[in-house]
Specification:
The protein is mainly alpha-helical. The protein has 13 helices and six strands. The structure holds zinc ion. It is found in: Cytoplasm.
Length: 416
């Protein structure tokens, strides 16, 4: 199964902060221990193989000697019985030696464990007090749903189904349907089958246009290019397919002209013409990205699963939160962090984690939430509902900024 996730945001230049450098050094020191174990294991394997091989050969020879003695019917000679007892000792010694060497690997393995303990904080749970979470049952359910969504999104449908059964989660078809459809179409696109994607794009044409999506045009273009790749005998088919471009003529005029121009070179061979870029395979990767992005946005799904976004954010936020925890413990003010929806400090996650604007009430200096939304007063100033309620005096409200007097009921909730 292929992944629905498409990293179409090109990675920007990376700057490592001091925390990241320290974390990388920690990883490297654990890795060094792992490498030692692997090296030991490899050497042990080779040595073990060789010793056993030698032993087998030795025993085999002895067996042959014994067999020939038996055939001759002569009693066991003193030499042979000495060789036999030597053989038994040799077997015992080899096995003991191998067992000893094997034990030696154990100590290297336990050194890896110690390196992990030494380099990483094992008590991540302790970073956040239990008070900020929902009940354990609710937590587990939320986590299971997040994992499930991630699996569906990554196209790992059979694993998702298995998890559903094992966790006895009740997932209705409405939840899975968009993922199943997306995956089916993407699978086809990966096989260079445009049919299902075109069908989907045509049936969602209006909504795609509202999103300024050029998915349908790009799909038709790819189908046209396919005809071009077929050479001169496909010229008529290509020309007749070109009528599909008509609805997009005003937006994609330039690209349509390029495609029409390429027809001139069909006899000569497109691959040797100035239009050879049309045959580039990258168009297929591009169409998968366009489809994923536009279909996700139309179906109200995020391109990256909430689980992978949360995980990546957690990796960034954890070192900061661990520092905060240490500071709070030092100053004995652990009660500071008791809000469910808010971290004790702001943590910068980078532009790609900006999903929507947030509003902090200028009066209470708190981020607004569903239960305490931002309210626009008739003078245009915005404060939180809690602040508004606090400012009401004798049924009247005086704006703390302008200070226009007004009826508190005239304030309107706004959504950022
Ligand atoms: Zn005002």
């Amino acid at each position: 199964m292929r992944s629905v996730h498409s990293p179409f945001v090109p990675p920007g230049p990376t700057r490592w902060g001091p925390d990241t450098v320290a974390a990388m050094e920690q990883c490297a020191s654990v890795e060094r221990e792992v490498d030692k174990v692997l090296q030991k294991f490899l050497t042990y394997g080779q040595h073990c193989e060789q010793s056993l091989e030698e032993l087998l050969h030795y025993v085999g020879q002895l067996r042959a000697d014994l067999a020939s003695t038996a055939v001759q019917g002569t009693p066991l000679s003193a030499t042979l019985s000495l060789v036999m007892s030597q053989c038994c000792r040799k077997i015992k010694d080899t096995v003991q030696k191998l067992a000893l060497d094997h034990k030696d690997i154990h100590s290297s393995v336990s050194r890896v464990g110690k390196a992990i303990d030494r380099n990483f904080d094992s008590e991540i749970c302790g970073v956040v007090s239990d008070a900020v979470w929902d009940s354990r049952e609710k937590q587990q359910q939320t986590l299971q749903m997040a994992i499930l969504e991630h699996l569906y999104q990554q196209g790992m449908l059979s694993v998702a189904e298995e998890l559903c059964q094992e966790s006895t989660l009740n997932v209705d078809l409405d939840f899975k349907q968009p993922f199943l459809e997306l995956n089916r179409i993407l699978e086809a696109l990966h096989e260079q089958d445009l049919g299902p994607a075109l069908e989907w794009a045509v049936s969602h044409r209006q909504r795609l246009l509202e999103l300024n999506s050029s998915l349908e045009f790009k799909l038709h273009r790819l189908q046209f290019i396919r005809f071009l790749a077929g050479g001169p005998e496909k010229q008529l088919e290509a020309l007749s397919y070109a009528r599909h471009f008509q609805p997009f003529a005003h937006v994609h005029q330039r690209e349509i002209q390029v495609m029409m121009g390429s027809l001139v070179y069909l006899q000569l061979g497109l691959e040797k013409s100035p239009y050879c870029h049309l045959l580039d395979n990258s168009h297929w990767a591009e169409i998968c990205e366009t489809f994923t992005r536009d279909a996700c946005s139309l179906l109200g799904l995020s391109v990256e699963s909430p689980l992978s976004v949360s995980f990546a954010s957690g990796c960034v936020a954890l070192p900061v939160l661990m520092n905060i925890k240490a500071v709070m413990e030092q100053r004995q003010c652990s009660g500071v962090w008791s809000h469910k929806d808010e971290l004790p400090i702001e943590i910068e996650l980078g532009m790609k984690c900006w999903y929507h604007s947030v509003f902090a009430c200028p009066i209470l200096r708190q981020q607004t939430s569903d239960s305490n939304p931002p309210i626009k007063l008739i003078c245009g100033h915005v404060i939180s509902r809690d602040a508004l309620n606090k400012l009401i005096n004798g049924g009247k409200l005086k704006c703390p900024y302008c200070p226009m007097e007004q009826n508190p009921a005239d304030g309107k909730r706004i959504i950022f």
